[in-house]
């Protein structure tokens, strides 16, 4: 198929002012009647999208249409004779239970007990009815649902309830009216046997909103945490952005069968159960945070996405990057700013940097696509958020809020573009922000080079910054970007210096903006050569290249008052220490180990921050620094690095700390308890590297005594990874204990898929025969195959290529069921060109054979062709 291009955008010829949709719901067949009230230019043909629909009836202005007056082929229904104000009625049949792709209307769970639901973003609505399936067509929806009352007691759709009642033959109906015009990707319905919890929420504007969370009956008690999180984020959006909720009801539904994390359908959010259900016995501390974050993310879309939507899918980051940023702000406010920033930057480096460095690289606003579902990427989401963060940093809190108010006011009820966003932020602050548009149009992570020079005579420190784009096919000539660099200078005692620039004292931190290829910045009244701390808070999504001496980084790691910057210095130092491990060097390795041993002994340090400081960059990040990647070697060297750290701290000190972190009594979920558990896990992992018997005995005890999932899973993971004799028993116990809980069972699969090295493949193969394994459930497929292929480099990248072969075979099987998930798992092959020659050849062979398969979906074919490039 030909690609769809941003530059070909044209406004729709026809709009749909309102739609009356009615569903006769059934598991095997559902019939959908749609009445579209059309506005447009009668001289232009009416073309509606429709995929795999069985057309039962069609009428224009209440008159049945002759077969000659319409044509349906290749996913498009073309209708003749339509005039401005016409009403087109279609009746179609769909087959929810047969829909394994989980887009459009489908069945979640079993035929007997499951429920029906929809997923329309990005282009699922065309699987439900004929419609202009594009985000710039905004329509008022009236939706009537009819179904058997016993089988589908709960009937939900987006908007406000507008009546319900009985029908003959045990059937019933319910109607919903959404007063806010919306694109069809925000349409949703849910029907089935569900339980609810509910709460009244009083908005800052004084309106009462009914908040309702729905799930299958056996897990309804696990919805309370999400309800609390929902209330918190609603209040936060009122306070931080002045945004209030705008319907009488807000429904949230949990499903175990979902392609992504959650979906912000207007008034009816649908969640992957993994991001909604939380209970201490089965949910880890990190997962609690993720539930809070995803609940907030979807809720925040009500303004950044729903009230102001996207003109076209090229603008996806307009809603996703902005909403990720809003969620990150919220999570930072609810928890810890430094820890949240560490988590987000680590994710960016682990997921987005490799994407941006490989053949799948694309700009935050892509120029073209074949399959839009393949563009829900770390670049659009995470890098997109970093771009908003740069803009927010430039404007400052008040200027950013002014700009956001302007953006929401100006674009409310519109389908907007990235330009609209930059214009609103700029206009509200009398600034031209259009230079930032370049960030949205360039693929690749820019490199920022920094060179410092101290002139003792002039008491002046000069910093020369230059930017270097990654060579990339899409834009040979890249214009310089505005790169905000937040910085500070430290003296050799670790004190921050007052900064004087151009005769002015600017405080202890300054932001300089590099907007040319190279620029020099001068700092006066500096007595001795300082240590620069650059890119503080990760002020721009770039790769910093600076010839730091290990001692300088160690000084920042031990003295910077800001936790994030401390961590960042530690990460850079750890990377140098990793190089030492390879080359037998000592300087960086000792500097890193000694600095951390010193911090380990500091009782005032936040345990959660300490845990993060004690964690070197992951194997994927370390691989990004290599010319030629040997994942087995990276794994071994990283183990050696951590072992050295553990030895420097000492087995005794580690064991002592472990004992001190042991808490008796019932599980606590407060920040202090979570921080302690985080550190306990890290300490146990380090101890396992140098004193396996002691660590295994501790892990064994921790597994048996664990009050919650965080401790239980940490212990299990240490037992499995360190090959403890008791690992098999612990695994069997976990399997038995959580047999009825799919989310806990996913963790059981994932922990084994992470086994490092050659053994992993065999384990994955044997787990595929576990009766609980199925490719039909995305969470399960991701837990086993996704973890193996994307989260276990030394296991997946076997030199014999058997890991690649296994993934390729499973991708073909998965693709026949669910192309979106197959395509996503296939991105594990990204970066194969930089593997060492033996693995590279093996990967090429497997990928080339996969690309030859004639039956691949458009989703998978695009990714396979893309990575092979
Ligand atoms: N906006 C939502 C995207 C989404 C999605 C996209 C493609 C296929 C299935 C999907 N489910 C949800 C999620 C979000 O970013 O909030
Ligand atoms: Zn989103």
Automatic annotation (TrEMBL):
Top-rank taxon: Bacteria
Keywords, in A-Z order: Aminopeptidase, Hydrolase, Metal-binding, Metalloprotease, Protease, Zinc
EC nos: 3.4.11.2
Peptidase M1 membrane alanine aminopeptidase domain sequence ranges: 225-433
Any Pfam family hit: Peptidase_M1_N
Residue ranges constituting the Peptidase M1 alanyl aminopeptidase Ig-like fold domain according to the UniProt record: 444-546
Domain Peptidase M1 alanyl aminopeptidase C-terminal: 551-868
Record GO terms (molecular function): aminopeptidase activity
Keyword presence, Hydrolase: yes
Keyword hit for Metal-binding: yes
Uppermost EC category: hydrolase
Coiled-coil region: none
Cofactor(s) needed for function: Zn(2+)
CDD domains in alphabetical order: M1_APN
Start and end residues of each Aminopeptidase N-like N-terminal domain: 100-186
InterPro entries registered for this protein in UniProt: Aminopeptidase_N-like_N, Aminopeptidase_N-like_N_sf, PepN_Ig-like_sf, Peptidase_M1, Peptidase_M1_dom, Peptidase_M1_pepN, Peptidase_M1_pepN_C, Peptidase_M1_pepN_C_sf
Catalytic reactions on record: Release of an N-terminal amino acid, Xaa-|-Yaa- from a peptide, amide or arylamide. Xaa is preferably Ala, but may be most amino acids including Pro (slow action). When a terminal hydrophobic residue is followed by a prolyl residue, the two may be released as an intact Xaa-Pro dipeptide
Family: Belongs to the peptidase M1 family.
PANTHER family from the UniProt entry: PUROMYCIN-SENSITIVE AMINOPEPTIDASE
Protein name: Aminopeptidase N
Organism: Dyella ginsengisoli
Designated gene of the protein: pepN
């Amino acid at each position: 198929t030909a690609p769809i291009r941003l530059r070909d955008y044209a406004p729709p010829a026809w709009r749909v002012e309102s739609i009356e949709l009615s569903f006769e719901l059934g598991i095997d067949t559902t019939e959908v009647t749609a009445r579209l009230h059309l506005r447009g230019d009668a001289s232009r043909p009416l073309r509606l999208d429709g995929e795999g629909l069985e057309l039962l009836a069609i009428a224009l202005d209440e008159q049945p249409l002759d077969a000659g007056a319409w044509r349906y082929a290749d996913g498009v229904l073309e209708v003749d004779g339509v005039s401005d104000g016409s009403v087109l009625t279609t009746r179609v049949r769909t087959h929810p239970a047969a829909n394994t792709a989980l887009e459009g209307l489908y069945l979640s769970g079993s035929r007997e007990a499951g429920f029906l639901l929809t997923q329309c973003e990005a282009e699922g609505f065309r699987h439900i009815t004929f419609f202009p399936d594009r985000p710039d067509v905004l329509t008022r929806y009236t939706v009537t649902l009819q179904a058997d009352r016993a089988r589908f007691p709960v009937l939900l759709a987006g908007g406000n309830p507008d009546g319900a009642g009985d029908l003959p033959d045990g059937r019933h109906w319910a109607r919903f009216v959404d007063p806010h015009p919306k694109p069809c990707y925000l349409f949703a319905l849910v029907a089935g046997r569900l339980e609810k919890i509910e709460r009244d929420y009083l908005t800052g504007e004084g309106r009462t909103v009914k908040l309702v969370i729905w799930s299958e009956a056996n897990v309804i008690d696990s919805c309370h945490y999400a309800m609390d999180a929902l209330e918190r984020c609603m209040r936060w959006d009122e306070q931080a952005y002045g945004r209030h909720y705008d319907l009488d009801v807000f429904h949230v539904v949990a499903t175990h069968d979902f392609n992504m994390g959650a979906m912000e359908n207007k008034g009816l959010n649908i969640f992957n159960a993994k991001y909604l259900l939380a209970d201490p016995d089965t949910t880890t501390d990190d997962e609690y945070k993720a539930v809070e974050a995803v609940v907030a993310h979807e809720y925040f879309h009500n303004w950044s996405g729903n009230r102001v939507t996207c003109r076209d899918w090229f603008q996806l980051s307009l809603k996703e990057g902005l909403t990720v940023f809003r969620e990150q702000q919220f999570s930072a406010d609810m928890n810890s700013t430094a820890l949240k920033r560490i988590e987000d930057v680590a994710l960016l480096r682990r997921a987005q940097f490799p994407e941006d460095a490989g053949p799948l690289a694309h700009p935050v606003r892509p120029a073209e696509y074949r399959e839009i579902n393949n563009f829900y990427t770390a670049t659009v989401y995470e890098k997109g958020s970093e771009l908003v963060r740069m803009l927010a940093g430039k404007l400052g809190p008040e200027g950013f809020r002014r700009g956001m108010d302007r953006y929401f006011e100006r674009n409310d009820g519109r389908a907007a573009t990235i330009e609209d966003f930059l214009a609103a932020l700029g206009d509200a602050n009398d600034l031209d922000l259009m230079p930032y548009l370049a960030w949205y149009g360039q693929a690749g992570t820019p490199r920022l080079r920094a060179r410092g020079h101290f002139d003792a005579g002039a008491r002046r420190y000069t910093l020369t910054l230059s930017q270097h784009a990654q060579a990339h096919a899409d834009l040979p000539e890249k214009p310089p970007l505005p790169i905000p660099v937040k910085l500070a200078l430290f003296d050799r005692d670790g004190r921050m210096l007052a900064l004087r620039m151009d005769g002015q004292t600017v405080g202890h931190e300054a932001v300089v903006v590099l907007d040319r290829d190279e620029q020099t910045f001068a700092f006066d009244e500096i007595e001795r050569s300082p240590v620069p701390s650059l890119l503080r808070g990760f002020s721009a999504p770039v790769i910093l290249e600076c010839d730091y001496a290990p001692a300088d980084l160690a000084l920042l790691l031990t003295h910077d008052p800001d936790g994030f910057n401390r961590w960042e210095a530690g990460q850079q130092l750890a990377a140098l220490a990793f190089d030492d491990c390879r080359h037998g060097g000592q300087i960086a390795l000792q500097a890193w180990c000694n600095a951390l041993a010193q911090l380990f002994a500091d009782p005032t340090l936040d345990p959660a921050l300490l845990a993060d400081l004690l964690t070197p960059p992951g194997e994927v990040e370390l691989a990004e620094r290599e010319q030629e990647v040997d994942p087995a070697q990276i794994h071994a060297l990283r183990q050696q690095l951590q072992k050295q750290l553990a030895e420097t701290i000492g087995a005794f000190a580690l064991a002592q700390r472990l004992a001190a972190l042991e808490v008796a009594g019932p599980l606590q979920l407060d920040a202090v308890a979570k921080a302690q558990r985080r550190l306990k896990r890290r300490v146990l992992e380090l101890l396992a590297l140098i004193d396996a018997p002691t660590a295994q005995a501790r892990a064994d005890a921790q597994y048996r005594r664990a009050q919650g999932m965080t401790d239980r899973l940490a212990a299990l993971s240490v037992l499995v990874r360190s090959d403890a004799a008791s690992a098999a028993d612990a695994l069997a116990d976990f399997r038995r204990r959580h047999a009825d809980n799919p989310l806990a069972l996913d963790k059981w699969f994932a922990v084994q898929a992470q086994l490092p090295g050659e053994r992993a493949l065999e384990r994955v193969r044997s787990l595929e025969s576990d009766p609980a394994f199925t490719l039909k459930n995305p969470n399960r497929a991701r837990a086993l195959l996704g973890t193996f292929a994307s989260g276990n480099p030394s296991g997946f990248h076997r030199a014999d290529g058997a890991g690649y072969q296994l993934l390729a075979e499973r991708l073909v099987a998965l693709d026949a069921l669910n192309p979106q998930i197959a395509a996503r798992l296939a991105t594990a092959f990204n970066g194969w060109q930089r593997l060492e020659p033996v693995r590279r050849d093996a990967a090429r062979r497997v990928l080339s054979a996969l690309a030859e398969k004639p039956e691949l979906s458009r989703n998978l074919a695009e990714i396979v062709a893309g990575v092979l490039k």
